[in-house]
Amino acid sequence: MEMFGDIRVDDYYWLRDDSRSNPKILSYLKAENNYTNQSMSSVKQFEDQLYAEMVARTKEVDDISAPIRRGSYYYYERTLVGKDYKLHCRRHITNDTCPPSVYDVMPTGPEAPAEHVILDGNIKAQGHEHYYIGAFRPSPNNKLIVYAEDTKGDGIYTVYVIDADKGTAIGNPLKGVTSYIEWAGDDALVYITRDEYHRSDKVWSHKLLSDQSSDLCLYHEKDDTFSLDVYASESKQYLFVQSWSYNTQFIMYLDIYKQEGGLMTLTPRIHGIQTKASHSRNHFFIKRTSDEIFNSELVYCPIDNTSETHTLIPHQESVEIDDFQLFSGHLAIYLFENDLPKVIVYSLPQMGEVIGPLQNGRAIDFVDPIYSVYPEESQFSSSILRFYYNSMRTPPSVYDYDMTSGISVLKKIQPVPGGFEPSDYLTERKWAVSTDGTRVPISILYKKNLVKFDGFNPLFMYGYGSYGISIVPGFEAWTFTLVDRGFIYAIAHIRGGEEMGIKWYEDGKLLKKRNTFTDFIACAEYLIENKYGSKEKLCINGGVGNGGLLIGAILNMRPDLFKAAVLDYPFVDVVTSLLDPTIPSTTSEWEELGDPRKEEYYYYIKSYSPVDNVRAQNYPNILVRADFYDTGVLYSEVAKFVAKLRATKTDDNMLLLKCELAKWHFSKSIRFEQMQEDAFTFAFIMKALDMVPPVSS
Questions:
Q1: pTM, whole model, 2 decimals?
Q2: Any idea where the Peptidase S9 prolyl oligopeptidase catalytic domain is (predicted)?
Q3: Out of 34, 205, 262, 537, which residue is the most buried by the measure of CB atoms under 10 Å away?
């Protein structure tokens, strides 16, 4: 392949078959899988033991989610012992005239209103190898339910509307749609479909009981670098259609009481400006980001004059506005400051009074030194903010917070069986210094009585660093399978994410992408230098596209730093894939990594593309995962990366390819199937570290 006078030779291009029907290629992948299974056969018993541990650490009893109040009902999900899928349930609220309180508890028992199972996923899944419910939404009057189901694992959904009480179907299902679907009042839906390249490109309006063929297309996004999303305001009065690329987002809105007017523009399409909107009272509230306002500002405008914007919370260089949540009388702002999340709540002025700028917000206090907090669905007309909280040692928890009194009440915490005690573990925040002097945060978890900081502890390090995705330090039950064996678990918050604000993201994309790799290497060197581990003990992991690109790139750059590496569905043949716009993710990746049809980007991307930089040198032990039916990261580029490594590297370390041949990427619907993958990964890592105990008789 030749471009700009540069010649690239790909000896493994023949591995790509978009029809996925070539028997020669299928045989090749099966042979790779057989080789992997044979190589790991000696630790199969240990792998099974690890899997059993992870299952035991997951609560396998009847359990329910924290009930959420919607109108006259509590809605919740129930899981049953031995069942793979959730039951979607509700109970009537007998005293629904009483204002909500953080102390409210859904009544149970013989005297309580009966539980009504609206949808049982275990029944619906019968006869399907794969089953997944991608959306479940009650209508505003709670009489109907719309849900989207995928029975093939290809991300293409069929949408059903049923009577909430009787379970009977209302009209015919909508076919070939996405799970992006919202109620537009009680008798209409708005949904999104995809084009032939799986890009969300059209938004439709559907009247209940009408035929899908008569649905009205509200908007068609013809620019193939943009995709569509739809979401409802907390007030449920407006739907927002967001057209987005990686650096530009603009918004249209639909007034559900005036649907005949169609979509109206709220924020225009301006390159480099990103917006998110919601509604309360007679104003729209808009989070706005640009090159100058890189950490976002919050503005508001009257509904009848959307061009008249006023600043509510101004831009700050040291604090990023990550998200916001509106109520009839309050506003909750989710911030990031020095890579730590904060939640500030404000009281909104009375109707008719001037709104902002807002001052004297109240911060919610959290106990862990590093943690994660996210907004959960809350009741718009109440003063109760519901949020999701966890840390690397604190299991997922749901709290209700009274924004008037400042009182927090724990509503649900995920139980962790087996005598788990959070106080047995410590979390830390450390900072590495990258090659350009940038300080890079690292989140660390370990068990107090197993770590001596003498360099002899095994070390497991994770990174991602793309799309502005913040890898916040949260509770992952699987980490304790490692940590309880003396591992130190570390997350490198490298540039390309948005942990330190939008500039953190901007400094890890396009022609600054190599910062992502040098940051990760700097974090590894810091941990080794400070005796958290050693080169002989350091194992690394990244995946799902660009996280795998991260690991692939640094394996070529500094293979000497690591003992083992796991790449899950990695984007490794970057130049070739970005030159092919028929791959669904290619056009959007041009805004993340650059367009190699331009000479400057071609050579820059080629300088780190994992496939293009494999060379004759020693590499650590490597496990690579692929998915035969993945349309985002093609199995062929993963397979050719492994093939080129095997033909080129100069060591005898393990190099294994594990290719899923049956299911689509992200199609995991069985509750414990992911644990089986994790158990295999950990068995591989501990085999590489010679930590597998002797096989028992």
A1: 0.81
A2: 475-690
A3: 537
